[in-house]
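Minutes, project huddle
Topic: does the predicted pose make sense with protoporphyrin IX containing FE bound?
PN asked that the exact inputs be recorded in the minutes so nobody has to dig through chat later. Recorded below.
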Amino acid sequence: MGWFLESLNSSIGKKIVMAVTGICLILFLIVHLINNLTLYGGPDLFDTVVKNLDSIKPLVRVIEVILALVFLLHIIYGTYLWYKNKKARPVKYKINASSKNSDIYSRTTFVTGSIIFIFLVIHLRTFWYAFNFGNPMTDLHHYYQFTVETFQNPIYSLFYIFAMILLGFHLNHGFQSAFQTFGWNNKKYFPIIQKLGTIYALVTAVGFASIPVYFLFFYGGN
Ligand code: HEM
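Predicted holo structure (tokens), as shared on screen:
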């Protein structure tokens, strides 16, 4: 056990933790997006999907605990690596050459990650809490209606749209970075990984952002 914890604490160990947790989160977002897109099927479909998930609550709870640990590890190790990197960099460069050495996505990962974390806290407080611990509306299984009313608040929806743009930036860098950690950075395959990452980031960001856009600007009632 000791050797395992020691290797997780080495530099490469930390990068592997970031990559593995990042890939778990990439997979979670695919499932979560598919789930949320059922909102476009109307109240009956969405409310049925949520009720079905409710019927397998113990399993959902176990997945949520694993997910919380994965998020925590990703945030703690990510913050540590960012801090270590910042300390190691020679300070007070007269000319900032960082743009030559890295792209805008990697240079902004910590900032985008921090704002996504704030988004996540607000998001869980609104949806997860109401769906699991009751709300006059969700108690009656009016999950769809609760979602509609939440997104009809312009400030709330605009914050979601902003956060999803940042999520796109974060994923665009994170996807390729995870595969790079696993050694997929040769000349032949890396450009394919980069393209796949950009497609994944775009589909995820546009897919999630389309929901507040729809309910704020286009929804006319069901
Ligand atoms: C428009 C975008 C989104 C909508 C409409 C949405 C909707 C929801 C809903 C309804 C729940 C409660 C599910 C339940 O407990 O039955 C939930 C939970 C959750 N959401 Fe989202 N979500 C969105 C975006 C995101 C994003 C971008 C992330 C991550 C960065 C995220 C992370 C989570 C997590 C971790 C949970 C708790 C685990 C779970 O219950 O599945 N969500 N979301």
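Observations noted during the meeting:
- DSSP finds ten helices and no strands in the chain.
- The chain has a mean pLDDT of 90.
No decisions taken; revisit at the next huddle.
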